[in-house]
């Protein structure tokens, strides 16, 4: 992205690797933004929504480029002394653009059809079925489904439900904040019923909640095979993701039933803005307002 930025402004033949860092200026950013916006206006041909999306892409690219000169990155550059203009380059502001519209949620009736078809998936592909259950009922990420183990489960004292805690393992560290969510007891019982028997010789038992003969087979089930099944049942791609949309749907239901703060905690987000911008959307009116005094009788 940095190379493309420089070459768009300085020419396609610019030797970016051999150039001085003194060319990284705020003026370079502004000229690049202008050229990218002009191209976007031509490409979108009056489509205002598409133009706003293009401007968000411009800003995303700028953020990516500027990350090369973040405080953390510069701290690792050691004795490399960068000229003052690089700091101006790294803090140049994005173009004005509308925020992304509220997240696109799966429809309730579509999710109902997925649940109705889950028994057939379980008979055909128990591993993909297990990943589906963990995503639908617990909002787990694909990678968390891949690593989920029976040891992560804790039955609640009241019975009828389990807590599953995403916890560090030798081969796994939870993304962001560690968190725990609650799963229905019936779902957990069905997941545990699929665990393979212990090896008759070694006595060892694979306790991954997504059962598979090999790690690669488990990975395929949590990603490719589940995505294929969901696409076949009407789940379209959004932001280049398919199965991950189940996590977004789960978060929205959690927000509706238990509140936005619980949704943030369940997702493991440190920022409420991340929760609302990418998962639940901002709260909206559900009933009309009333005006004047309440009518008698």
SSE blueprint and pairings:
Elements (H helix, E strand, L loop, with lengths): L1 H9 L15 H19 L3 H19 L4 H5 L9 H6 L17 H9 L1 H7 L1 H13 L3 H6 L5 E3 L5 E5 L14 E5 H9 L21 H18 L11 H15 L1 H8 L4 H9 L17
Antiparallel strand pairs: 1-2, 2-3
Helix pairs in contact: 1-2, 2-3, 7-8, 8-11, 8-12, 12-13, 12-14, 13-14
Structure notes:
- By secondary structure, the chain is mainly alpha-helical.
- Helices cover 51% and strands 4% of the residues.
- The protein has helices spanning 2-10, 26-44, 48-66, 71-75, 85-90, 108-116, 118-124, 126-138, 142-147, 185-193, 215-232, 244-258, 260-267, 272-280; strands spanning 153-155, 161-165, 180-184.
- The chain has a three-stranded antiparallel sheet with strand order 1-2-3.
- Helix 2 runs antiparallel to helix 3 (48-66), helix 7 (118-124) packs antiparallel against helix 8 and helix 13 (260-267) crosses helix 14.
- The mean pLDDT is 92.
Question: How do you describe this structure in short?
Answer:
The chain has 14 helices and three strands.
Q: Spell the H/E element sequence.
A: HHHHHHHHHEEEHHHHH
Task: List unreliable stretches of 5+ residues.
Answer: none
Helix content: 40-55%
Instruction: Compute the separation of the termini in Å.
Output: 68 Å
| Total number of strands | 3
Radius of gyration: 25 Å
* Residue fraction in strands: under 5%
What structural class is derived from the secondary structure elements? mainly alpha
Task: Count helical runs.
Answer: 14
Largest sheet, spatial ordering of strands:
1-2-3
Characterize the main sheet. Answer: 3 strands, antiparallel
Globally, the shape reads globular
Average pLDDT level: 92
């Amino acid at each position: 992205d940095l190379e493309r930025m420089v070459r768009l402004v300085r020419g396609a033949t610019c030797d970016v690797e051999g150039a001085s860092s003194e060319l990284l200026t705020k003026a370079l950013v502004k000229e690049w933004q202008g050229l990218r916006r002009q191209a976007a206006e031509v490409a979108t041909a009056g489509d205002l929504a598409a133009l706003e999306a293009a401007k968000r892409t411009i800003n995303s690219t700028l953020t990516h480029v500027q990350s090369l000169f973040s405080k953390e990155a510069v701290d690792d550059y050691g004795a490399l002394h960068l000229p003052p203009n690089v700091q101006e380059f790294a803090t140049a502001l994005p173009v004005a653009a509308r925020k992304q519209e509220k997240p696109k949620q799966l429809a309730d009736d579509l999710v109902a059809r997925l649940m109705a078809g889950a028994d057939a998936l379980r008979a055909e592909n128990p591993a993909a079925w297990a990943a589906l259950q963990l995503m639908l009922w617990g909002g787990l990420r694909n990678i968390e489904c891949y690593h989920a183990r029976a040891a992560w489960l804790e039955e609640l004292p009241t019975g009828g439900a389990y807590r599953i805690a995403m916890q560090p393992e030798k081969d796994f560290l939870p993304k962001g904040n560690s968190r725990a969510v609650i799963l229905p007891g019936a779902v957990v019982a069905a997941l545990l019923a699929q665990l393979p028997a212990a090896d008759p010789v070694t006595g060892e038992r694979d306790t991954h909640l997504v059962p598979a003969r090999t790690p690669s087979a488990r990975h395929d089930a949590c990603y490719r095979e589940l995505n294929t099944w969901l696409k076949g049942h009407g789940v379209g791609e959004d932001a280049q993701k398919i199965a991950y949309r189940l996590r977004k749907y789960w978060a929205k239901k959690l927000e509706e039933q238990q509140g936005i703060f619980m949704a943030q905690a369940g997702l493991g987000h440190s920022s409420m803005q991340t929760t609302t911008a990418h998962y639940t959307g901002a709260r909206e009116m559900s009933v009309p307002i009333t005006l004047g005094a309440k009518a008698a009788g």
